[in-house]
Design brief:
The protein is mainly beta. The chain has one domain: Porin (Beta Barrel). About 10% of the residues lie in helices and about 50% in strands. It is built from 2 helices and 20 strands. The strands form 2 sheets. Strands 3-5-6-7-8-9-10-11-12-13-14-15-16-18-19-20 form a 16-stranded antiparallel barrel. β1 and β2 form a beta hairpin. The longest helix has 28 residues. The protein is globular, with a radius of gyration of 23 Å. The two termini are about 40 Å apart.
Length: about 400
């Protein structure tokens, strides 16, 4: 009961956030209005403080300068989007609360003690185009979610409280139906279109049961391409190399390379995808196959959409056993004023013959306005028979601007 008593403070905290968000929005709108009245300003080139130019500041994010060549300013095709998340919650259970790193992996395990914790996450996404059809994308983020044990299950930034580059990629067309990309510290599956419409807020289920096959490590050099055949059919390939240690080189025996491919069909109310991957770790290869599918009702209402995922792994190492994982997600997109989701699946991949521990979750995403969403979440992670199951209750408030 201590867990639920302590979480009574969560609604009060969220109640404070709403008026603050409203005031902040009003101030920003007023500031933007004032900016539009400015005839001219002096902009200091951050790369050369001796160069000053005089130009008009453009509101709306389309560019900081107009009509003048300026190496230190934003171009007219550059846009920026910002997001911030605040989360509060607690976890009850022994031996199952994990500390997550920036990629959602859990390198350590600790006991939950019902303590209420609070974390934040912040992200800036920059995008610019040089031809009108290409896109250079850079993600900057910060946060302290990885330092917590209770809220590490939420998909938040937590590498550092100092703003750092989380990924960079360049996407460009090659002909009418082919698109390619290159990048670093990003997923090789950037152009994949996995058949799943379930929007899980947790690290365990947000890959829809297609974790390893989707090349989702998010580190190292990445490249890939996708082809649109038309009539809902598409294909994509992806590659990641060297992992976090770029000194080992690409396509070398010392480096860990991974490559894969995906076939997808997307229809009006249903879709399916098949994903293949070959990943290398410490000189040993593992082959993965994943199958995903979804169905959505023609009209939102009492009938939810259904998303399914199933993945198998076949390691080549001597004595290693095959692995499996699966997932099921139900989502009501118009459950009152918000979205209701209920999902379950294995807690990661399990080797043949091993006990499969399950993960269950339920969430409700309520959009307060265009820039603010509140998401309560409850989940249960099964644990060893000698220890209690892991129960988490938390609330995430997300801002986008």
């Amino acid at each position: 009961m201590k867990l639920f008593q302590r979480l009574l403070v969560a609604p009060a905290a969220l109640g404070l956030l709403s008026p603050l968000a409203a005031n902040a929005t009003e101030v920003n709108l007023n500031d933007m209005s004032n900016y539009s009245d400015i005839e001219s300003i002096d902009i200091v080139n951050s790369f050369d403080n001796e160069d000053l130019i005089e130009d008009q500041l453009i509101a709306g994010g389309e560019g900081m300068i107009d009509g003048v060549a300026f190496d230190g300013g934003f171009s007219e095709t550059t846009t920026a989007s910002f997001s911030a998340d605040f989360a509060i919650g607690s976890v009850d259970g022994k031996g199952v609360v994990t500390t997550y790193d920036a990629n959602g992996n859990s390198p350590s395990v600790a006991d939950g003690d019902e303590a209420i914790e609070a974390v934040y996450s912040f992200q800036i996404d920059l995008s610019t185009s040089f031809t009108g059809e290409d896109s250079l994308d850079i993600s900057l983020d910060a946060g302290n979610a990885a330092t917590t044990t209770a809220l590490g299950e939420l998909d938040l930034n937590g590498a550092s409280e100092s703003l750092s580059v989380d990924g960079i990629s360049y996407t460009f067309p090659v002909g009418d139906n082919l698109t390619a990309f290159v990048g670093d510290n990003t997923d090789g599956s950037l152009l994949y279109n996995t058949a799943c419409v379930y929007a899980s807020p947790t690290n365990t289920l947000d890959d829809c049961g297609n974790k390893e096959a989707a090349l989702g490590s998010g580190s190292g050099t990445a490249a890939g391409a996708s082809y649109d055949f038309g009539n809902g059919f598409g294909a994509a390939i992806g590659y990641t190399g060297a992992g976090s240690d770029s000194e080992k080189g690409l396509f070398t025996k010392e480096g860990d390379d991974a490559y894969g491919a995906q076939l997808t069909y997307t229809g009006d109310s249903y879709g399916a995808s098949v994903t293949y991957a070959n990943t290398e770790s410490s000189g040993s290869d593992t082959t993965y196959w994943a199958m995903n599918g979804y169905w959505t009702p023609s009209e939102s209402g009492s009938i939810p959409s259904v998303s399914l995922g199933y993945e198998v792994g076949d390691p080549e190492a001597s004595g290693a056993k095959d692995t499996t994982q699966y997932f099921v997600g139900l989502q009501w997109d118009e459950a009152g004023p918000g979205t209701l989701g209920v999902g379950f699946g294995t807690d990661g991949a399990f080797a043949d013959g091993a006990t499969e521990y399950m993960f269950y979750e339920a969430f409700y995403a309520y959009e307060v306005n265009d820039g603010m969403t509140i998401t309560p979440l409850v989940y249960i992670r099964e644990n060893d028979k000698d220890k209690a199951d892991h129960t988490g209750i938390m609330v995430k408030t997300s801002f986008s601007f």
